[in-house]
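Incident review: delayed structure delivery

Summary: a single-chain prediction request sat in the queue longer than the usual turnaround. Root cause was a stuck worker, restarted by the on-call engineer. No data loss occurred. The affected request and its eventual output are reproduced below so the record is complete for anyone auditing the incident later.

Affected input:
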Amino acid sequence: MVTKCVAVTQVVKVTVDEKKFDEKFMKEFRESFYNFTTIDDHIKHLAQLYVRGCEGFIEGYGEQRDMGISFEIVEQDEEFE
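Output delivered after worker restart:
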């Protein structure tokens, strides 16, 4: 049996339709999920969700295509620790 630790680093390009992140959406999201105040807060969160395998319907956002959300991995690196 072989066990090794591997560090995986991904750079994810996240695109959102900023018109969908209006004050009404931001307020409702803060009340139900996290105290995000900027679109950048959401983009960082969405990138983390994506690399963990979440796409399609995303809790708090709904269907990603309806919110204009898309993802693209632009770089990935793996190395043993």
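Verification: The mean pLDDT is 97.
Action items: add queue-age alerting; document worker restart procedure.
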